[in-house]
Design goal:
It is built from 4 helices and 6 strands; from the N terminus they run βββαβαβαβα. It is α/β, with parallel strands linked by helices. It has a 6-stranded mixed sheet, sandwiched between helices.
Length: 123
Amino acid sequence: MMEEGTCVAENTHFSIALMPRGGSKGPSQDAYRQLVAAGEDIAWYYTMFLHPLPPKLLRELRDKDLILVPELNYLGQFSSVLRSQGVRAESITLYTGLPFKVSELMDRIGERVRVERQQRVAV
């Protein structure tokens, strides 16, 4: 695990990453750890500095094939901000007023990672 004053990152050599914010951090981190333990090749990024994003972090995110952003809102606001800065970000949203369940996140992240990898192989 790499910790820099403004960002926590793990497995940064993988091309697909998980980057939660706010209330989705805890369940996302648990899902991430379980997915990695199950053999998924996925990176982890977390920062509390959203505007502006740390320059080194933004450069790394732009180099990724996909950043998955678990968000507890309908619009996927953080992934929209990332996309506006040249990052290929995609939201995993939940807007029921309840937190994410770890099992649900594992299913949704795992499925999206599998689809992304199949698309890359098919091209």
